[in-house]
Write a structure and sequence with these properties.
This protein is mainly α. It has helices spanning 4-29, 38-72, 93-101, 109-113, 151-187, 205-254, 258-289, 299-320; strands at 75-80, 118-125, 128-135.
């Protein structure tokens, strides 16, 4: 993975998401296996269902169990000792497993971690054993998904942690991106390239690195400007002596003799070469000066700039002497 942003973002997000998912699953695993009040409700429901069955048969027992389903939102089945359901309904296989073995059938590892939704209770009425098996409701589904699976809760946790990790990764990598862009512009010849002031007034190490880069770029730009001005001044100072040399050469040719003609030709050749050199320096200075200079110069550079042209002007005088 080559992107620093993706490394930081995915690492933080993966760690946060894993922590949240494990925390929710451990919380589910440690929840009490039985909801409060189930035992009292089961004992009362078993007694009333048996009384309805003894007084009105299967029809009365079925009516009571249906009313219990609508009022308590539970599916209740009452079995005789022989295994017959007193309302005559056909019980699902997992209800029959609970009646015969006292253990519910789990279809996945998530079912084993969730609170037990089946509850079994037996009682004897007038020498006859009756067993009540209740399938409890899955609980609220607004935050937790079907069958108590925390689908929406995990989704909210993962999305919120992803948003926080995205902002964190962006705040860490955005200065690096701006620094890289400014470096590319500087390498391409744009001496005015700057990273700019860090956003939100940050004072961390990345912000200090951006400010150090801007100071370095300012000094490089100032030094290059000083060099350009120095070359421009040197070329300007050389044009006047070369012009006077050309005039003197023309006057000398009027009085030249065959013995001095070769020396005058040599002087003219060297003067032409020097003129070409000065013209090339002037073109180079003109190219550099097209770059907009909006940065102030450093005091040390200005002092050096003032000293060097003075020295260049004193050299022709020394030569003339």
């Amino acid at each position: 993975m080559k992107s620093l942003f993706l490394k930081i973002f995915l690492s933080f997000w993966g760690a946060q998401a894993l922590f949240l998912v494990l925390a929710i699953l451990v919380t589910l695993a440690l929840r009490p296996p039985r909801e409060p009040g189930v035992e009292n409700m089961g004992a009362r429901a078993l007694a009333e269902a048996v009384n309805a069955y003894r007084s009105g048969g299967e029809h009365a027992a079925g009516g009571y169990l249906e009313d219990l389903q609508h009022s308590q939102h539970v599916h209740a089945y009452v079995f005789e000792q022989s295994g017959r359901e007193i309302s005559g309904r056909l019980a699902p296989p997992w209800i029959e497993d609970m009646f015969r073995t006292g253990q519910a059938r789990h279809h996945s590892w998530i079912d084993r971690m969730l609170p037990e939704r089946f509850w079994r209770q037996s009682a004897t009425f007038e020498g006859q054993l009756y067993t009540l098996v209740i399938e409890l409701p899955p609980g609220p589904r607004v935050f937790f998904g079907p069958h108590g699976i925390p689908g929406l809760g995990i989704t909210i946790a993962v999305v919120s942690s992803g948003l926080v990790c995205y902002l964190l990764a962006w705040s860490l990598t955005s200065p690096v991106t701006r620094l890289r862009q400014a470096t590319q512009r500087l390498a391409a010849g744009d001496l005015s390239a700057r990273t700019g002031e860090p956003m939100t007034g940050r004072r961390d190490e990345l912000a200090q690195l951006m400010r150090d880069f801007d100071r370095m770029a300012e000094r490089i730009e100032a030094l290059m400007d000083a060099q350009s001005r120095l070359l421009k001044d040197v070329s300007h100072e050389l044009r006047s002596p070369l012009a006077r040399l050309s005039v003197a050469l023309g006057l000398a040719r009027q009085r030249a003799t065959p013995e001095t003609e070769g020396a005058l030709n040599r002087i003219e050749l060297e003067a032409d070469r020097l003129n070409q050199l000065v013209a090339g320096v002037s073109r180079e200075c003109g190219t550099r000066c097209r770059v907009r200079n909006s940065r102030p110069q450093l005091p040390g550079v200005r002092r050096a700039d003032r000293r060097i042209p003075g020295r260049s002007r004193s050299q022709p005088a020394a030569q003339r002497d």
